[in-house]
Amino acid sequence: MKQRGRGGDRPLSRRPGAGEGAGPGASAAPARPKIDKASANDQALDAIIAADKAAALKLAPVSHETEARLDRYIALLREWQAKTNLIAPSTLPQLWTRHIADSLQLVDLAPSAKRWADLGSGGGFPGVVLACVMAGTPGASVHLVERIAKKAAFLREATRVTTSPGVVHLAEIGDNVDRITGPVDCVTARALAPLHQLIGFAEPLMRQGAKALFLKGQDVEAELTEAAKYWNIQPQLHQSRTGDGWIVELDAAERHS
Q1: pTM, full prediction
Q2: In the prediction, which pLDDT does 6 show?
Q3: Residues 6+ positions from 181 with CB-CB distance below 8 Å
Q4: Cβ–Cβ under 8 Å, residues 118 and 93
Q5: What DSSP string runs through the chain?
Q6: φ, ψ (nearest 5 deg) of residue 64
Q7: How far apart are CA 195 and CA 207, in angstroms?
Q8: What confidence tens digit (pLDDT) does each residue in 35-63 have?
Q9: Residue 100 CB contacts under 8 Å (≥ 6 apart), including other chains
Q10: In 3D, which of 69, 100, 70, 72 has the Cα closest to residue 87?
């Protein structure tokens, strides 16, 4: 039976079925290029991080030398992050503003400090960032205290690739005084423990003359109220440049009798 096509009474042509040839000399349709979704995602993340870096360095400018060290640090962190959870994956797009600039702002609160101790360094915030800033400063050192072996290994590699004056201590946080030799100008901690516990960790160093700078979140008032149950303190609060958090500055702490 014939069907009427546009050209008159002639059979309509049909496409070859599966497995049928398209006729002599016919060439196969070109294959569609495969899209590497993982590569595309990496490139998109690279662009986002680059824009975030520009924003972060406006908030906390650094020298070209420090920027180069921070670039090497971030490259290493992204490499290790694939196998070791150093930071929350959701914060990767804001690496520079949420982590780097957040750490850099501490330098302005202790501009003369050269010897730092960072308790619970984790992925290196703020300790490795501070070490990158301190590189090239005579007599500078940053003690990085970390109790998890994998993270301590990362911190050692980070200080190596950035050629920064970081000294890694694989130890419980409360053991820091026995391991840190020499004077400390400033002791820091970020996302480690409630404030009253942080003061307990840092108090031996503060008793020897160290200033404490603790990065805290929005609930800082509640933490200060709780800390006052255990400690006589006169805190100074500094609002973070990078979000809704706060920095608690302490020059001394005395436990209630």
Answers
A1: 0.83
A2: 41
A3: none
A4: no
A5: ----BTTBSSPPP----TT----TTPPPPPPPPPP-HHHHHHHHHHHHHHHHHHHHHHHS---HHHHHHHHHHHHHHHHHHTTS--S-GGGGGGIIIIIIIHHHHHHHHSTT--EEEEES-TTTTTHHHHHHHHTTSTT-EEEEEES-HHHHHHHHHHHHHTT--EEEEES-GGGHHHH--S--SEEEEESSS-HHHHHHHHHHHHHTT-EEEEEE-TTHHHHHHHHTTTEE---EEEE-SSSS-EEEEES--EE--
A6: -60, -35
A7: 17
A8: 455 556 678 889 999 999 999 999 999 99
A9: 53, 56, 60, 70, 74, 125, 129
A10: 100
Q: Give φ, ψ of 174 to 5 degrees.
A: -70, -10
Q: How far is Cα 61 from Cα 55, in angstroms, rounded to an integer? A: 10
Cα separation, 201 vs 196, whole angstroms: 9
Q: Are strands 236-239 and 246-250 parallel, antiparallel or unpaired?
A: antiparallel
Can you tell me which residue has the tokens 């409360």?
174
Contact 86, 77 (CB under 8 A): yes
What CATH code would you report for 43-255? Answer: 3.40.50.150
70-104 residue pLDDT tens: 999 999 999 999 898 999 999 999 999 999 999 99
Q: Which amino acid is at 7?
A: G
Q: How far apart are CA 158 and CA 146, in angstroms?
A: 14
Distance, in Å, from the CA atom of 140 to the CA atom of 165, rounded to the nearest integer, reads 7
Cα–Cα distance, 131 to 137 (Å, whole number): 10
